[in-house]
Amino acid sequence: MNFLKEKLLLVARQARIATGATRRHNVAPFFCPYMWKVTVTQKPDQCLGEWIDREALAEAMIPLIGQLYRNNNVVSSIYGRSLINRSVIAILKAHRFARHRQSDDSELSVHETFPLIKAMSELKLGAASVDLGKLAVKFKAEGNGRSAEDFVRDELADVVGKQNGSGRTGTDVVLYGFGRIGRLLARILIEKTGGGDGLRLRAIVVRKGAENDLVKRASLLRRDSVHGSFNGTITIDEANNTITANGNLIQVIYAKNPTEVDYTQYGIKNALLVDNTGVWRDADGLGQHLTCPGIDRVVLTAPGKGKLKNIVHGINHGEITADDKIVSAASCTTNAIVPVLKAVNDKFGIINGHVETVHSYTNDQNLIDNFHKGDRRGRSAALNMVITETGAATAAAKALPELAGKLTGNAIRVPTPNVSMAILNLNLEKGATREEMNEYLRYMALHSDLHKQIDYVNSQEVVSTDFVGSRHAGVVDAEATIVQDNRVVLYVWYDNEFGYSCQVVRVMEDMAGVNPPAFPR
């Protein structure tokens, strides 16, 4: 009888959620196995009931998140973890993940975020990026008795009532090259299509490798040994050489060099082209793309040579001007280390230091021993640690001039397919303790303008595969931090493929002028 009563209570609670008759939401006073602790007085049915309650609330959030994304171009996230097209479990895991981001180590509850997303859905918002985790924390600290509706209206005042008011029509994007970075850029761009007034992937350009080239290209986009399956549907049209991915019609263009393509014949105009090949890295070589009808600007996904601006988003993206037709998004390692170096230099000052990169092998290396023009890289990538050079330490000064001449660097390629680590061995002008250094970097990851670039983890159990899919440029491993007065050693994980690709997209959004305002301020 008691069991039946509890089931009825659960059904009633879910009915209240479904009809919008929400109660005053508070975090449950007990803890369940999916939380941090388990109390000795908890009951199994009570714990399961709380879980079902949260599942129902997360399920009710999904259509609100989707409608805001498609109709308003509002991207919702929780401490950098996107909620777009996510499952109930993924949404609950994002809330759980936020525990590591809260000052009191408490778990963020869907009971706290649901009223906020519901209020957002009723305000006819314009394009925006909203971090629900940070918004919930701010509401808790600064709500001052306001309702969720009043708080959200005040906090998002700049975009309230501006639905469809941006006047944007979208920017065409062409991917020149479709390797590891090219395919991940495609995934991110497709994921961020929204209502179509941001970056729109229109074409990829490759050399034809076989008669069934289109099938193979689509298959590589659909399945990835490191990053898993594509989140959506993919179809191909061999007669017209197109791939359709989640409604994005992508023209596959076969060409042997940049100058032979007329993009306007495919309806592509004023496009932003991303060169993923690395074949051309200076203004003259990349300038070939600008001679093609339909191309307006170019982004290079490798360190640029000569006078090209090397942009690390979050650091010097403000230097991009309307006159810049070609920019470089620097390297994955430069993107990983520069934000952390800037944060440390701003507070403690860097006298000098050494950067050692423990980097996953890349497609440039050989699977088994064979000739290679580079030193040591001819030896089997799957069997060896390979010492090689890195220009990241020197390149850091291009994005952060105050570090010019202060850093040296080297790299070791290791037998893993993805996720790398930068070890920053620094001598500081101002001494610190381990606790001071970690707390400062934690604050920078949460509350500074570098929150999209710097992430922070405090666990003794994390390993490299835990960072596959990280959207940050780098993740500070607090448990590994070593501080001895004015000498510090920092360990920074980074997904050298996906995290870097996210940084490239941020540069693209700035160049195209489609970067929406971020909230909370």
General shape: globular
List low-confidence stretches.
Answer: 15-19, 21-39
Fraction in beta strands? 15-25%
Radius of gyration of CA atoms, rounded to a whole number: 24 Å
Global structural class: alpha/beta
**Portion of residues in helices?**
25-40%
Mean pLDDT rating: 89
- DSSP helical segment count: 13
Strand order, biggest sheet? 6-7-8-5-4-9-10-11
The tally of strands reads 20
- Main sheet specs: 8 strands, mixed
Roughly how many Å apart are the termini?
51 Å
Q: Can you offer a commentary on this structure?
A:
By secondary structure, this protein is an alpha/beta fold. 33% of the residues lie in helices and 20% in strands. The chain has 13 helices and 20 strands. The strands form three sheets. An eight-stranded mixed β-sheet has the order 6-7-8-5-4-9-10-11, with helices on both faces. Strands 12, 13, 14, 15, 16, 17, 18 and 19 form an eight-stranded mixed β-sheet that branches. A four-stranded mixed β-sheet has the order 2-1-3-20. Strand 7 and strand 8 form a beta hairpin. Helix 1 runs parallel beside helix 2 and helix 10 crosses helix 13. The protein is globular. The N and C termini lie far apart (51 Å). The relative contact order is 0.10. About 5% of the residues have low confidence.
